[in-house]
Automatic annotation (TrEMBL):
Residues 12-331 form the Enoyl reductase (ER) domain. Pfam families: ADH_N_2, ADH_zinc_N. Keywords: Oxidoreductase. GO terms for molecular function: oxidoreductase activity, acting on the CH-CH group of donors, NAD or NADP as acceptor. This is NADP-dependent oxidoreductase. SMART domains: PKS_ER. It comes from the Bacteria.
Amino acid sequence: SREIHLTKNFTGPVKPDYFELAEVDVPEPNDGEVQVKNEWLSVDPYMRGRMIGVKTYVDPFKPGGSMEGGAVGRIVKSKSDKYAEGDYVFSMHGWREAWTAPAKGLMKVDADLLPAQTYLGIAGMPGLTAYVGLKRIIDLKDGETLWMSAGAGAVGTAGIQFAKAMGAKVIATAGGKDKCALCEQLGADAAVDYKATDDLAGALRAAAKSIGSKGIDAYYENVGGDHLEAALDVLNQYGRIAACGMIARYNDDRPVPGPANLVQIVGKSLRMQGFIVMDHVDLNDAFIKDLSDWMMAGKVQSKETVYEGIENMPEAFMGLFSGTNTGKMLVKL
Ligand code: NDP
């Protein structure tokens, strides 16, 4: 069976030589274990942090060993009474084609209810992340105006649709015309192509005006850098920022200075709060309930970009930083 290993820990832009395809044996399961053939692998921006070689909120990946990541696969051999052959499970045993591990700690997924890969996207971690950011961190209210950054990505496409279902007006930003069109198709009231303007704050103000909003009440931060600066500029008094991620910073060689206009946070009484989705899993039941209602009402759909074959996983991962994905970036085996 094949898996992807890291060749070294690194800072700076991600390069193909930092990954290698390794051949490994998959052991027979012992009592309490299962053997699984992965069908869907997830690549996510947070994985970049684990490639640096410094402990953050999770341990770094070690060069030459198996990496971790979200995966959905089918049980092919079971020595656990919890799982039967053919069951679908979510695990963190990603970046590989097959594995054997204790059944404890796996999560069964219902691939009849929703397509198996949605448990890595809208019905999984990125979906919950969008939900937590909007519900708990921003506490988005009916009628408010939200700016969703990286709007055409996994968290972004989920967040636009959830925010609309919560009764908000949504302005999305994304790179390129097609991505902006997708954001609008998913319900965004306006979309701004951040690559086509050198005055992001001005473009956002114009977008808010065009949809009859009195400015922007809340900002869902996925990007950092110039986006955060624009947010500090355009947010209304008492505006809220959910700091979910800052992908524009993940490939930096060294820390760069923060927003030049940070002082705005004082005068406007802004509130900015970061969060890690795993600290908010208590919201998962409410999330699944709302998501099913919204999906049943036709308000929410899943968007995905799929690369095929384990050998293309590094390319899929690198694509997150150049924006080759719309919706959730996935690798199908
Ligand atoms: P996405 O599917 O949004 O993929 C990343 C997207 O980011 C790209 O498609 C690209 O879109 C955009 N992007 C990349 N580089 C830049 C840049 N320099 N400037 C502006 N946009 C850029 O990924 P996810 O939805 O999985 O993640 C989105 C964010 O949420 C990330 O910051 C991630 O770290 C964070 N996150 C945080 C979690 C938490 O617990 N706090 C959990 C999950 C995700 P475009 O073409 O539009 O530029």
